[in-house]
Write a structure and sequence with these properties.
The protein has 3 domains: about 5-210, Rossmann fold (3-Layer(aba) Sandwich), CATH 3.40.50; about 215-250; about 260-380, Zinc Finger, Delta Prime, domain 3 (Up-down Bundle). Helix 1 (about 10-25) packs parallel to helix 2 and helix 14 (about 285-310) packs across helix 15. The protein has a 5-stranded parallel beta sheet with strand order 2-3-4-1-5, sandwiched between helices. The chain has helices at about 10-25, 40-55, 65-75, 95-105, 110-120, 135-140, 170-175, 195-200, 210-220, 225-230, 240-250, 260-270, 270-285, 285-310, 320-330, 335-355, 360-380; strands at about 30-35, 80-85, 155-160, 180-190, 205. It is built from 17 helices and 5 strands. With about 375 residues, the protein is α/β, with parallel strands linked by helices. Helix content is about 50%, strand content about 5%. It binds zinc ion (ZN). Zinc ion binds next to helix 3.
Length: about 375
């Protein structure tokens, strides 16, 4: 994931304007990128920061070759500072900067929630409330008071300054009279929540959401199959974070009807007509998709086993109804029963791979599955 203007899709006018400002030495010292969640605003902000630190910027982009560029490519340069929301007011962004770099390099369009889930925070329990505490803000500002380590510019990137609330006033003086060769780059998705005093002192740059074809390309770069990317891009309105969320959560479930809870509901209701239709649809899938469905079912039962044994399982990317299924199953069934069901799924995969008639495999699987559903229903009734 490149942080340079030529590697970023879309926003061509904006990129040219920014590169021109850096190149001509006219970049304002306090700037704010604003745009929707899942747009490329952080990516553009980081590219701007890199260009400000680059030793040989051209009129259109950073050089990518100089020593500062090599460091900033990894977001690791002694004059490039970050201030971002974290969990726990006793910590600062510095405590989590390694995780931040890793996550942002992988997914620069990430939203707050996804960052809080992936940031590996000490105190995870508190409903994942992220904030920019006073301590964190002061720490970020303090770092700008030192001389530049490498003799060039210093840059502080503040991600989601809307979370500062009134504490944002602490930034005022810094923004009004920044130390020499110092740039403050704010990246917001809720401009309305930022203090007017801050807004009026920063140069605003609007970042447009990605276009549909750009989302397809970014998903493909991120390892999502092109046909899946084509399906997802039209429904996310340019929100790349949302697109990745959908891509990674539905990877195994193929389609909405192909979920364990949906199937379980039909089986529980003894809805023979709907089950026969589902069997016909199963016949209509290719072998890869048939196996994906069965594997996803098996995975949920595995998660129920984990829940039973350890009291919890990683379920952050699952649908709410899947999480509920896991919980009910873990409550109702014993571990050996769940392993027996998993072996039923394994056997179905064995038959699918040998091209046994798919609708027969599906109905046979349904009869077996019903037995376990009855145990689960009896216990929760
Ligand atoms: Zn360079």
């Amino acid at each position: 994931m490149a942080f340079d203007f030529s590697g970023i899709r879309g926003n061509d006018t904006l990129k040219a304007e920014l590169a021109g400002l850096v190149h001509s030495g006219q970049m304002p010292h306090a700037l704010m990128f604003h745009g929707k969640t899942g747009s490329g605003k952080l990516r553009i902000a980081l590219s701007t920061a890199r260009m400000l630190l680059c030793a040989n910027p051209s009129s259109g982009d950073l050089c990518g070759m100089c020593s500062p560029c090599k460091k900033t490519a990894k977001l690791s340069h002694p004059d490039l500072h970050f201030l971002f929301p974290i969990i726990g007011s006793e910590y600062t962004s510095d405590d989590y900067v390694a995780a931040w770099r890793e996550v942002i390099i992988r997914h620069p369009e990430i939203d707050l929630q996804a960052w809080l889930e992936q940031g590996d925070f000490e105190s995870k329990s508190k409903n994942l409330q992220g904030n920019l505490s006073t301590r964190n803000i002061l720490n970020g500002m303090h770092k700008l008071s030192f001389k530049s380590y490498e003799g060039g510019n210093k840059v502080l990137v503040i991600w989601l300054p809307e979370l500062m609330g009134k504490e944002g006033n602490r930034l005022l003086k810094l923004i009004e009279e920044p130390p020499e060769n110092t740039y403050i780059i704010l990246v917001t998705e809720q401009m309305g929540a930022i203090l007017p005093t801050i807004l009026s002192r920063t140069q605003l740059f609007k970042v447009d959401a990605y276009r549909e074809e750009e989302v397809v390309d970014i998903l493909a770069e991120g390892g999502i199959a092109p046909e899946q990317a084509q399906k997802i891009a039209p429904v996310v309105q340019g929100n790349v974070n949302e697109a990745f969320k959908i891509a990674t959560s539905t990877e195994d479930s193929v389609d909405d009807i192909w979920t364990l809870p949906h199937w379980a509901q039909l089986a529980k209701n003894n809805d023979a007509g709907a089950l026969v239709k589902m069997a016909a649809a199963f016949q209509g899938l290719n072998n890869h998709h048939r196996k994906q469905f069965v594997k996803q079912c098996s995975l949920l039962v595995h998660k129920a086993i984990q829940t039973k044994i350890h009291g919890k399982a990683e379920t952050s990317y699952l649908k709410p109804e899947e999480i509920e299924f896991i919980r009910n199953f873990a409550n109702a069934l014993e571990v050996p029963q769940m392993y027996a069901l998993i072996s039923v799924f394994d056997k179905a995969i064995f038959y699918i791979e040998r091209n046994v008639n798919a609708s027969i495999v599906f109905m046979a699987l349904t009869f077996q599955f019903e037995k376990y559903l009855r145990i689960s229903a009896a216990s929760t009734a």
